[in-house]
Amino acid sequence: MQPGQVVQISPRIRRITAGNGSVFTGPGTNTYLVGTEEVTVIDPGPAMEEHIDTIISASKKIKQILVTHTHPDHSPGVRLLKQKLDVPAFGMLTNTSKNQDTSFSPERILQDGELFEEEEYSLEVVHTPGHASNHLCFILREEKFIFTGDHIMNGSTVVIGPPDGNMKQYIESLEKLKNYEIEKIAPGHGEVLENPYQVADWIINHRLEREKKVFEALKEVTRGTPDTLVEKVYDDVDSSLFPIAKASLLAHLIKLEEDKLILRSGEEYIYEGAS
User: Which of 30, 70, 137, 246 could be disulfide-bonded to 226 (CB atoms 3.0-4.6 Å)?
Assistant: First the structure.
């Protein structure tokens, strides 16, 4: 996966990977071009001039821009693309996400179930909160491809960072995808994934196993915080990743509290059976 290359991954889909590879973004953020005559751009990525120029040069006519969510590696490129082309951008903004990328000003806020119908293709909007409250996936009906942004990535599980991220919603959104007719996943990072239902189930099971580990750790020590629990809960990852892991650990604790399995007192979470 080389940054800047235009890769044809299906009859209607091309992929361009931005040159922003990192521990958070893997090989880089994937931008997808859907269609050939009237192109929909999904996630222009970060505000990188070279990447935006590649998107433009690869497209006969860009009709619109769709954004999965407003994290800094997915949506800031919209502003640069709109400066060069007079095209509308669409996405979602919520109270907890509106300050993530203040440059993103969509022409219209998308709703779950909306359909973009073009001559060559149709794209269905699916609201999938969890990684971000304003996260959207898009289904290319003709090819049964789903563009998952950071809802599902290839090569890594995604960080769920409260307050905008929510573990309970994330798992529910993964279950939701199983209601759609899809055959392949075009993720925001990494290569195309086959067997989308099995992928969703694997992630759900992985998260629930981690949740069980959080619960057992808290039961053992009776009370704790992400800082005090991270080493025990994430003993299977390198300690350099603990600062990242603590965000998802907090999301697990919040979910356990929402499920009324633990209690919270100030910043501390407490095993309910503790005396």
Answer: 246
